[in-house]
Amino acid sequence: MRKVLITGGFGFLGSRIAEHLGNLGFEVSLGSRTSRLVPQSLKNCKPVITNWNDTSQLRNVCAEQDVIIHTAGMSAEDCAKDPIASFEFNCISTMKLLEACKTNVRKKFIYLSTAHVYGNPLVGKLTEDSIPRNNHPYATSHLAGEFGVNYANAKGDIEGYNLRLSNGFGTPILEEVNCWKLFVNDLCKQAVTIRELTIHSNEEQQRDFIPISNITKTIEMIIHQKNPLSQNTFNLGSGISLTLMEMAKKIQSRTNHLFRFSPEIRTNPNLKNSNGGFLEYNIDRLKTLHLADNVNFDGELDSLLLYCQNHFGTSAI
């Protein structure tokens, strides 16, 4: 049985990865800055303290692990408020973790980065060879973290991979996780609470939405690779570009399928005639290495809508 450390293990993405790997029989350590109780829904998982100011403690935590999945990081909003802190954590703490992973046995290290390194908004055809152009602290600090992974990988300290995530969505594991600012999660919550779907941005803007189930499956496939992959940086998305209106209509359709009503879609009239911009978030590198799984939008949306109904809905539905 392989042992996995997930930093940010109690976060929105970290806990979903933990659930998936725990159900597969991995021994999962959930890294957190504070002591936490592990919910019963997370099988084969235990909490561990990750003290980012104590390299010796981090080294002890990493010593028994086969795989480190680094999901801990500051949000875009927090990075904008404190750019210095964004680099101290997203870059420097990542470097500390990489240093702690150095052993005689080369560990697998998976870093969860962001598609936003390429720009804001994301437009055009974007491959892993596209030049990152986003100067926002969220993007630049993550890119610096990627450079740290690349350096450690080149030295042979780790077998390192950077995953540039597009717009993930899905059901949270922990109720206290705040994932309701995400576009899809927000609309699903609106659907069952106010029976409307209000799009606050340009409805013609294109995004690459990816169910979290696809993210967790891709990570599983990378872990199972016996030999180092020929590439170490990947665009992780669905490879399917949808406008915000197209995604809203998908949510409207799934709401009708589950609850037999169609929430009205509302848009900002001041943005109706603006150009959303073409986007192709290219995932050919994943496909070439057989690391891309079938995308199941409906399954993830149904799960998310049912979660929203159970936690936020009314008896009227």
From TrEMBL:
It holds the Pfam family Epimerase. InterPro entries: Epimerase_deHydtase, NAD(P)-bd_dom_sf. Gene3D superfamilies: NAD(P)-binding Rossmann-like Domain. Residues 4-237 form the NAD-dependent epimerase/dehydratase domain. Belongs to the NAD(P)-dependent epimerase/dehydratase family. PANTHER family: DTDP-D-GLUCOSE 4,6-DEHYDRATASE-RELATED. This is SDR family oxidoreductase. The lineage of its organism: Bacteria, Pseudomonadati, Spirochaetota, Spirochaetia, Leptospirales.
